Amino acid sequence: MDTDETIDLSEFSEELAESQTSESVDESLFTGEAKKEKTQEQEFSSMLHENFSPKQIGSIACYTEPVSVSVALDVVIQLFKDDESLHAIPVEENDHVVGFIDRKTVESASGSMWKRITSSSIAEFIKKVDVILYAREYIENNLKKVSDINRKYDINYFPVFNGKSFFGMVSLDDFLDRTAEIREQDLAKATAIQQSFFPHDSDISSLPYKICFWNQMANELGGDMINVYKLSDSCSLVGCFDVSGKNVAASLLTVTVSTFFQSLLATNNKERNPFHIIAMLDAYLARVIPPGNFITAALCYVDYEKKNFCIFNCGHTTTYLIRKQGDKVFSVSIDPKLPPLSMGEVHDQLMASLESKDAKHPYNAYKLTSGIHLSMYSDGFTDMKDEQGERYEDPRAKEFFMKLYDTPDGEVKGEVEKTVKDWIGTAILPDDVTVIDVRF
User: With 90 as the cut, is the pLDDT of residue 120 above it?
Assistant: First the structure.
């Protein structure tokens, strides 16, 4: 800048908080010889940062010894030359930090011999700042204010106070970097939590049949879910769920499905009728899920004692039964007979089918015989696109599952992953993909 005129930031300024005076830092701690000061500043800054959470401004503030507004330009030029990591220096006037002089401004001025000769001090190069940030305030709460000031006044550096004492400085980049870091950490934790709801090896190994599944979310979080609910030693319910929407919002809705089944286990629920369980699930989801959202599902109830199984397709993708006779592989397509969950319609239709013998069966029942494979998947599998934008589509999915029949159990997951990766290539996965392979 070529002027030392103070920019009016009154609309963004805040009064010094009286409640923070007890947190003041003794400025004498920052005094000392210049050569020793750099190491002392780093050690002391590190010590101070330990007193703040990573979400507080104090954790990203960097202390640099302020210079006087009357100091010569050549002195500041030398300070920047001596420390390549220095991006800005706070400037004091009447024992108060009033602004900053940054490296870019100094480099521009140092290239002009005329400016160096005619400038008796750095006053005309200072970017003055009226806004005050406090070390114990939260980064996310102040990000918008800092961004607005930067956009409106081209101010990049801001003074941070702890109580009434100058604590250090922060930049808009510091705010953005820490915010991104925190959100990335939060997403990683949320992803781990969501994945913990997927079936564990112990859930699958205790079943009298084999299950293999593969899941890849389009984002860190997604709307696909798999559930294995063991009702007894011989009865179980396997479900593939797909929530409307994607990412964070969809992931929250998948938790409602998982917690429903977890609550049945926790309360030692004695219900064994799949009609009642699925009807209860639909009624529960209708109560807790906001209007406009829904969950499709393909649920397979298996009764090994009676040697039968039935499939309830609730608005989900086509489910395939695959069987081999001789050298030929045959398939049966099972399309939806029920609407998606969370609207209450599934509950009503299931209860009506139990009460009336004339009602159409809203499920598909089959005799359980060895060699039958059941393939369930979310629509992200058929909707995935290659680099030219061509979708995988249902016919290819059906052909894939028929070829998968002869794939050894231990290679199923790798074959699914290879198929997905080979198809999309360098393209972006547009939706979550889940594939479940059940083998009787």
Answer: no
